[in-house]
Write a structure and sequence with these properties.
Arc Repressor Mutant, subunit A, 9 helices, about 300 residues, D-Maltodextrin-Binding Protein, domain 2, 3 domains, seven-stranded mixed β-sheet
């Protein structure tokens, strides 16, 4: 008998529930996602801890957080889910062909698109994916016109359009470390093009705080904003993940108002194909993998 046959097996349902808890930050919300009762979810996690002979959660009153073993297992659980999905899809979708047109802004695209395409290719290898990189405003118009099957975008508003929020991140003020742009009046800004949520959030915050500013630079790509900041010509509102040395976060100490989170939405055209729906599922899953592990709460 091999050593592997003596080890217990982890059911995919246990891994799925564990990942759902980590993604939603709550046992009760995870229960809704996996269609179980909260008590059943708790029993599943007790069983999982017994199989691994490790505590995965530290319980503190009504909240819980992952232990170091829990954080380690999260990576394995996601890989188990990906492998299960890839294996099943490999046989159920074999022979499916077609074409899907997918849009993303450059600024969002480089974060998640490689993972999205990799996952989709593993389950639908015969499907052609046409990727369009445009501004969020352009993507919204293309989706409305039926020229895109689906798109991820970050617009200031969506009207009556049906969208699914797939990612949120803190928006922060960024300036050059030890730079002088922050001290200039009126405050010089490097902003995204009109229609981008980052621009609207920043201007609304400055107007509400009565901060005098001028729009010094506009760009359809975040690299254009970052270039102006690196040259110490302006400051810019950027996702927190974009602010790395030699840039630094600015805030109340520099007289700047706080910025709210921005959202990345998934938009699909009406009547899109089953193949496009499958790609949409990979989009949601790929962005979920980007999320930092939240503080978990029983709610």
């Amino acid at each position: 008998m091999s050593r592997h046959s003596q080890l217990p097996l982890i059911e995919t349902d246990l891994a799925r529930t564990f990942v759902a808890i980590c993604d939603t930050g709550s046992f009760s919300r995870a229960a809704d996602r996996v269609a179980r009762t909260p008590s059943a979810v708790s029993l599943q996690m007790k069983k999982l801890e017994e199989i691994l002979r490790r505590e995965l959660f530290v319980r503190e009153g009504r909240t819980v957080r992952l232990t170091s073993d829990g954080e380690a297992f999260l990576g394995y659980a996601r890989r188990l889910m990906d492998l299960n999905e890839e294996t099943v899809s490999r046989f159920l979708t074999q022979g499916i062909e077609g074409r899907v047109v997918f849009g993303a802004p450059d600024d969002i695209g480089y974060i998640a698109v490689p993972q999205i395409l990799k996952r989709f290719a593993s389950t639908h290898p015969q499907v052609e994916v046409d990727v369009k990189l445009r501004s969020s405003d352009d993507l919204r118009r293309l989706c409305d016109a039926g020229e895109l099957d689906l798109a991820v975008l970050a617009c200031g508003e969506y009207g009556q359009r049906k969208v699914t929020i797939v990612h949120t991140e803190n928006l922060v003020w960024a300036g050059l470390k030890h730079g002088g742009a922050i001290a200039r009046e009126p405050l010089p800004l490097a902003l995204a093009s009109r229609g981008c949520a980052w621009r609207a959030i920043a201007l609304d915050a400055l107007d509400a705080a009565n901060v005098r500013y001028r729009i010094a630079y506009s760009s359809g790509h975040s690299q254009g904003q970052i270039a102006a900041v690196l040259a110490d010509l302006a400051i810019a509102p950027l996702p927190e993940s974009h602010v790395t040395a030699p840039l630094q976060k600015l805030g109340a100490a520099e007289g700047l108002p706080p910025l709210r989170q921005y959202e990345v939405a998934l938009m699909k055209r009406r009547g899109c194909s089953a193949v496009a729906d499958a790609l949409a599922e990979h989009v949601v899953a790929s962005f979920a993998d980007l999320q930092p592990t939240p503080t978990l709460a029983f709610a």
